[in-house]
From TrEMBL:
Superkingdom of source: Bacteria
Basic and acidic residues composition bias: residue spans: 213-222, 230-239
Renumbered residue ranges of the record's region Disordered: 213-239
Name of this protein: DUF4230 domain-containing protein
Length: 239
């Protein structure tokens, strides 16, 4: 790769990531400060006990949102008291790419086609976030539901809702969708600063580990889209 485009690329990418991280950090800081304001001008009713703000080189590329249904059962008194509960609650799962891991070995420049190939780290998911404050109780069954049973049911349904949401987020279909969105986000992140730096229009091809074409000395055909390259390879494998 030519040194000048590489230096410009890394510098532009770093600036873009730092700017995005700074904006997100200030957004979280401002929200935390607002949460500590006193109610009606009096003493604070709710206040922050501890707080920690960390920088990050990760890029959020997608978010899965929806509603999850969870069920749980509780048995007490030697099986005489059985309680069942079904709840629904909103959930969200974020998808991220750690762009801070990108280095010179992950970039390949084709000067003839003005194409930059980026071997990006894979998309990862954050822990599922279930909105307990907006849960709706669908159904509770039981001859007599004790307070202890109700608390156990609430914990069980919350835990199961989180498990189900994370399983959905990590399914092959959702991960494939997240990678496509991640491909677009990374290409936009790198292409725009390069153009602004005077390199003109640059095509950015982003690959992820599951689809990496660098096997046995093979390289991307940068005259075609990565989707077409992968399709042709799959067709040859079936023959």
């Amino acid at each position: 790769m030519n040194d000048r485009p590489l230096r410009l690329l890394l510098a532009a990418a770093a600036l873009a990531v730092i700017a995005a991280a700074a904006w997100l950090s200030w957004d979280r800081f401002a929200e935390t400060r607002l949460a500590t304001l006193p109610d009606d001008g009096g003493d604070p009713v709710t206040q922050i006990v501890t707080a920690r703000l960390d920088g990050s080189g990760t890029l959020k590329v997608a978010e899965l949102t929806g509603t999850v249904q969870a069920t749980a059962s509780d048995v007490r008194a030697l099986g005489l008291l059985r309680s069942d509960q079904v709840v629904k609650m909103p959930y969200s799962v974020g998808y991220f790419v750690d762009v801070s891991r990108l280095g010179p070995d992950d970039l390949e420049w084709n000067g003839q086609t003005r194409t930059l190939i980026v071997d990006a780290p894979d998309v990862t998911t954050a822990p599922a976030n279930t909105d307990e404050g907006r849960r709706s109780l669908v159904e509770t069954k039981g001859l007599f539901v004790t307070r202890e049973a109700a608390e156990a049911l609430s914990k069980s349904t919350s835990a199961r809702a989180t498990i189900v949401a994370e399983r959905e987020a990590k399914s092959p279909e959702r991960m494939a969708q997240a990678r496509e969105l991640g491909r677009t986000a990374i290409a936009r992140l790198l292409a725009q600063p390069l153009a602004a730096a005077g390199l003109g229009e640059v095509r950015v091809v982003v690959t992820f580990p599951p689809e990496r074409a660098r096997r046995d000395g093979e390289r991307w055909d940068v005259s075609r889209s990565p989707q077409q390259v992968m399709k042709d390879r799959a067709d040859r494998a079936k023959q």
